[in-house]
Every structure is written in structure tokens, then in C-alpha cells.
Amino acid sequence: MSIGAWLELLASGLITGGIYALVALGLNLQYGLMRILNIAHGEFLMVGAYLTWMAHTTLGLSPLAMVPVSFIILMLVGLVVHRLCFRRLTATSPNVDVFEARGLMVAFGLMFLVQNFASWMWGGDLRGYDYLTSPVAFGGAQFAANKLLVFGLALVFSLALIAVLRMTLLGKGVRALMQSPTGAQLVGIDTKRLHPLMFGVGLGLSGVAGCLLSMAYTVTPAMGEPYTVTALIVITLGGFGSMAGALAGGLLLGVIEALGMHFTNPSLKALLSYSVFIAVLLLRPKGLFSK
Description:
With 291 residues, the protein is mostly helical. It contains eleven helices and two strands, in the order ααααββααααααα. α3 runs antiparallel to α4. It is globular, with a radius of gyration of 19 Å. The protein starts with a helix and ends in an 8-residue tail after the last helix.
């Protein structure tokens, strides 16, 4: 293989991994902070993708303009979902284990509810649009401009979230809750405000991921579920509750998939991902990047 071919292969993996990381960060934020294993997370990614496709094809809005709009809309949806579903579960569950089990069942219901809503609203046909499809030459390789943009924005949002969690007072409160919920409450951190806010931010990030995906890939009502599964694998790679680990795990998984599919068979993508998942669970159950 030429250097250009290697660059294209690695870039393909990093672009896919950037989306994986962005989706995983939102899910990791919800689970690490509130113990909500929201397996409907990918369905809200799908909603963000449909909103962007609809705004671009019917209203003529730029997909880039829809990035902050998707974040805000899905964040507001997250606040409503938390208030209607998970806040009551928190109040009625006797302990964390019961809450996790009940929350998982609620998330299952949300997954099918959102999927069926999308099928009813937009139909089951493939949707898509052309946006920045012209190739960009770099180092003897060629990349689609829209995919480079997707990777760049996914990386920016991921790093921005990590920076907020590490460098702001809000971020310190979130990290304190992740480390010790009881201790955080004893020092005065208001979980009743922080939980719904962070749940909303998590869904907002899924909306951004869906918006970015729609720029380069087709949109269907079933597109979200595989990303939820992949996000769980990424979180396992990076370690539950570790945001930097989720970013590194997403990029690593994307590169592993790209290399594996190139040297074996593209149909083995799921096998590669699950093999990595099982190996990490057996050898490093706390994640590759945990301390």
C-alpha cells in the first residue's frame, strides 16, 4: 500500500471514530453521573439527523447552521424526558440497583417509541442530501470534504465537553457527583438541577452527532441503534465515567474497524467490534485508559 492509501485508511477510521466518541461521551455522561443506561441514546441521534435533513431539503438551511439548533432542540427534549421519566424513577426507587433496572426498561420503551415516531413521521425510505462532496487532496490521498468537516466538528465538541468538565465549576460538580454522589450532596451540590441539565446535554450531543452524520451518510429510522451499541463498546474501552477515555476509545475503535475491514472483510465489522469488546471486558474490565 502507498502512503496515500494508508492515510486514507487511517483517516476513514478516525472520522468514524470521532462520531463514535461524540455519541459515547453523551451516553457516558448520563450513565457516569446518573446511572441511566440510556439505550435509546442512538434514537435521538437519528432524530437530529432527520431534523437536519428536513431543514436542509425543505427550508434550504445549511447543515452547519443546524449543528447548534440540533443541540438546543435535543437538549430541551432531554430535559423533558428526564422530567417525565427518570426524575420520578429517582424518587420512587429504593436504591441505585433498582433505579438502573427500571431506567433500562424505560429506555427500552423510549427506543421503540422514538423509532416508531420517526417511521410514522418520515417513512422508512433512505433519506440524504449532497453537501461538500468534492474531494480534498492531502499528502497524496483524497478525502471527501464533508467527512473531514464531520471529523473536525466531532473532535471540537468532544474536546469542548472535556474542557468544560475539567476547567469549570460546573464540571467540578459533575466530576464530584461521578466520584461520590453522597459526598457531593453533603458539600451542597444540587443534584435536582444538575441531573436533568447533564441528561439534556447528553441528548444534545447525540443531536449534534446525528446532524454531522447526515452530512455524509444516509438517514433511516433504524440508524440509531447500532450507534448505541457501539457507544457502549467505546465506554467499555475507555472506562465508565471517563470522558477522555471515551474520546480515545472512540478513535481507537474507529481505526481498528477500518484496518480490520480492509485486511479481512467489510462484513466482519460487527465481529471486530464485539471481539474487542469481549477482550477488554476479560482483560481490562475497568477500561484501557482507567488508572
